[in-house]
Amino acid sequence: MWNAILNSMSEFKFVCPSCGQDVKCESWRSNTMMECPACFQRIIVPRAPTDDDMELVIKGSKATRRLVTKPGMDLGTPPAPTLRAKNSPVTGIAFVILLCAAVAMVFVFRGKIFRSTNVQSTTASQTSPAQPVNPAPARNVTPARPVVVAPPPNDTNWTLTLSAAVIPDAPVAGRIHGKDFIRQHAYLEVGTLTMRTDNPGSPDLGLSVYLHANRSQDLAGRTVSITSDFTNAPLVRLRWKDDEQQPVTKDFKEGYVLRVEFGQLAGKRLPGKFYLAVPDAVKSYVAGTFNAEIRKSKLPQ
Fold first, then answer.
1. What b-and-e string marks burial along 59-92, b requiring 16 or more CB atoms within 10 Å of the CB?
2. Could you tell me the residue ranges of all domains in the chain?
3. Parallel/antiparallel/unpaired status of strands 285-295 and 173-176
4. Which are the contacts of 252, defined by CB distance < 8 A and separation ≥ 6?
5. Is the entire prediction scored with pTM above 0.70?
6. Are the CB atoms for 280 and 160 separated by under 8 Å?
7. Of 25-34, 51-60, 89-98, 263-272, which has the strongest mean pLDDT?
8. Closest Cα to residue 60, out of 10, 15, 11, 13?
């Protein structure tokens, strides 16, 4: 089934209007909205070229929030109008009642209030005259998040033998191009599983696996296994930044091993287990559990 789906896809390249990086995608995504794999900005995929040269580089356009209504489009429920408060004698009466209640409470508890203040002032003056009567409360200091470091690749966590791969019962982590990768975001969009670090504007590290399912929900309960000798495998894309903090991407279409065990759909999320090892010189690998958010691909208006 996967071979039939992948064989029906033809790829073309276009230039991201935000970061200028080349973006490669399938022709069926023409005129749809997607995130740039380099800068994660929303862009509109241009129409695929009609000639035989599918490597023609064209330029996409930025996605805007402008909405053009169409017949039958659900525009949602308009917000309820805010009613301007009118002057009313009831408001004045309520204010007078609240003021009287406050004065009555002060009168009833005046002994406790003033006695507590006097005792505090006397105690402070006897013990340490130089200390302020009401010292400022200590600030609540939020403890720093522990630094999680992925273990370096070895024969246990990096292997190109799928049967020997081990998926730990812990959040997805690993190393991408020699850099520690700790998964902080995971989502599915039209069958594409993406994981990245916690920096939406310009992700330092990330990966995408293009499984090419018609709907992300169709992956529920399924397992995808790709061995190193698999031909016509799904596209795997790794992302990182070089020493000049410029985004870099590298694609793998064969030679890697992959295993994704999808669980059952829970609302708008799909949990699962993940293992990936690619045949690069630094032995990049990612393994662990995830709970991916299901996102819908929006057509341009």
1. ebeebeeeeeeeeeeeeeeeeeeeeeeeeeeeee
2. 7-65, 150-296
3. antiparallel
4. 235, 236, 237, 238, 278, 279
5. no
6. no
7. 263-272
8. 15
